[in-house]
Design a protein that fits this description.
By secondary structure, this protein is mostly helical. It is built from 3 helices and no strands. It has one domain. It is globular, with a radius of gyration of 13 Å.
């Protein structure tokens, strides 16, 4: 886990990313691709968490509700 940032936010984002990898197809594919490229588990989890946070921030900025039927496009990998 990263040392910068709010402790409670950091503690909440890790389980969010873990569950997203288990149940979300896009997050699962992103994690698998990063692991295939020899990224550590922690780095792959941070990348997934960063994408989830970016999505949440964009939704809040646009005041857009979450639509699970919307087809997401995968952002480029690190």
């Amino acid at each position: 886990m990263r040392h910068a940032g709010h402790l409670r936010l950091r503690g909440a984002v890790y389980p969010w990313a873990r569950v997203a990898i288990q149940h979300g197809e896009l997050s699962r594919r992103r994690y698998a691709e990063l692991r295939k490229r020899d990224h550590s588990h922690g780095r792959a989890m941070r990348s997934v968490a960063d994408c989830l946070l970016a999505m949440a921030c964009a939704m809040l900025t646009r005041q857009a509700p979450f639509d699970p039927n919307m087809s997401p496009t995968a952002p480029p990998y690190e």
